[in-house]
Design goal:
This is Flippase. The protein has about 500 residues and is mainly α. The chain contains 20 helices and no strands. It has one domain.
Length: about 500
């Protein structure tokens, strides 16, 4: 049976961590845009995008595969858990070694292909980025498999805090782009140390069987293959388009494009918190025992997410120009049309963030991998095509277009596993759309009075108050039920 109280406890822990993480990330982004010129900012994140592609091969789905097997063996044979963690960690050290060696050899070639020799020393320093970021991801995701969302969230938050401290300190004393990159590395190193300590303390609680179950190492690797494809598609979606923009255009445009993507990631934080907390509850056996309950929980999650995101997206599109110039400065006004296109995809990405972990824990990683791979390849093709026609705005449009198809496929896959009430969901969507239209109309009318940060903040607050009044007044949100639910989950 789906344990709603466990989901809520995990969601609150993960959301708290996301809050601190995205707060610190937001401060870092604003700080960097104020300290670095658009071309320097673009160069930094072009390097990080290349390194993120390297992280794909250093992780190869091992963390999520390990988490899945840990979750499955918690109830059936906990004595295998120390073997699962130990063996997968050894595998991950091997993959890290291979990738960093390849990067060391090819850094000069990559810089030459991107026609920017200043990238080579940054890529060489980035070897440490791959090591620390991979170990951070391994510890965080495997802790999720123990259904210990609080500890996993602690690791997540610590990376954001460490990044803030180290990036600001190093850039402030004059180390520029290199200092920012080293700050990112030190943030990952801090969180990886915390995460691995928590993970191995957690693992040591379980008595270890004399030998590892026959075939289990092979199973871990086998299940990591579709997860690698899925993660690879995600990396392509998140980072390859930045590399493509860097290849065809200039570093300043990369900076504008990156700003748009970063705002999208910032906005989808709450959705990913929900998915991260809910995912472990949707094991195949649990859903088989209570399919109806699983469907109702997913419907509630979906409606709540859209109720939050659709009005927020409308407000962001209307207020993009003053938001960008107020936060990042007038030098970054080139990001405005790019962000407006990306904003359309925030709702789509939010739905997939809430859904992907559920599909993986339902054993649908292979099917999701195929879908993700297909749409990501399509994203590359359309990015190159639309980039030639519309510049960076075209690249953003290609990403949103492919996200639309991927979201639809994810929902289809969920529907094939748990029967959703389609008429109910469409009715709720229409209700949310009406609220969004009313709020957007009023915010658009007020936007002409924006003169600076204070007036912008007042109008955003007015939109939020109006949204709350409309949702509560129309019955979409029952305040008493929400408060009681969260209060009870905290007391369980």
């Amino acid at each position: 049976m789906i344990d709603v109280s466990t989901i809520l406890r995990g969601f609150k822990a993960e959301l708290s961590a996301k809050f601190f993480y995205y707060l610190t990330t937001g401060i870092v982004i604003v700080f960097l845009t104020r300290q670095l010129a658009p071309d320097e900012y673009g160069r930094l994140f072009l390097v990080i995008s290349v390194l993120s592609i390297g992280r794909l091969f250093s992780s190869v789905g091992l963390a999520k595969s390990t988490a899945t097997y840990v979750s499955n063996y918690l109830d059936t044979d906990p004595s295998q858990i120390p073997h699962i963690v130990r063996k997968s960690f050894q595998y991950n050290l091997i993959t890290i070694s291979i990738v960093v060696t390849a990067l060391f050899v090819s850094a000069g070639t990559i810089a030459h292909l991107l026609d920017d020799p200043t990238l080579e020393p940054l890529l060489l320093v980035g070897i440490l980025y791959i090591v620390c970021a991979t170990l951070y991801n391994y510890s965080r995701v495997v802790l999720q498999g123990f259904e210990n969302i609080a500890q996993s969230s602690t690791v997540y938050a610590s990376e954001g805090v460490g990044r803030l401290l180290f990036v600001v300190a190093l850039v402030a004393v004059g180390y520029g782009t290199l200092g920012a990159l080293v700050g990112y590395i030190m943030g990952f190193a801090l969180s990886a140390g915390i995460g691995l300590t928590l993970l191995f303390l957690r693992t040591s609680r379980y008595p270890s069987a004399d030998v590892m179950e026959s075939g289990l190492p092979r199973d871990i690797i086998s299940y990591s293959v579709p997860l690698t494809v899925t993660r690879g598609a995600w990396v392509l979606e998140q980072d390859i388009d930045i590399v493509i923009v860097g290849f065809f255009l200039n570093p300043a445009t990369v900076g504008f494009y990156t700003i748009g993507k970063q705002v999208v990631r910032f906005c989808t934080g709450p959705a990913s918190s929900i998915g991260f907390a809910v995912g472990p509850q949707y094991s195949e056996s649990t859903v088989a025992d209570d399919e109806s309950g699983a469907a109702r929980v997913y419907e509630t999650m979906l409606v709540s997410g859209l109720l939050f995101y659709l009005p927020a997206i409308a407000g962001l599109i209307i207020l993009t120009d003053p938001i960008v110039t107020t936060l990042f400065g007038p030098d970054y006004r080139g990001a405005v049309p790019i962000l407006q296109v990306f904003a359309v995809g925030i709702g789509l990405l939010a739905v997939t963030e809430m859904t992907e972990d559920i599909l993986d824990y339902l054993g649908k990683a292979t099917a999701r991998a195929k879908m993700k791979a297909a749409t990501s390849i399509g994203n590359i093709v359309f990015t190159v095509l639309f980039l030639q026609l519309l510049g960076a705005v075209g690249a953003a449009f290609a990403t949103v277009l492919m996200q639309f198809f991927y979201t639809g496929l994810c929902l289809y896959l969920v529907e094939s596993e748990i029967a959703l009430r389609q008429r109910y969901l469409l009715g709720k969507l229409g209700h949310i759309g009406a609220i969004t239209a009313v709020m957007a109309g009023i915010v658009a009318g007020l936007s002409r009075y924006i003169t600076g940060a204070v007036s912008l903040s007042v109008i955003i607050a007015c939109g939020a108050v109006l949204w709350a009044a409309l949702t509560i007044g129309s019955g979409l949100i029952d305040v008493r039920t929400v408060l009681d639910t969260f209060s009870n989950s905290g007391n369980d």
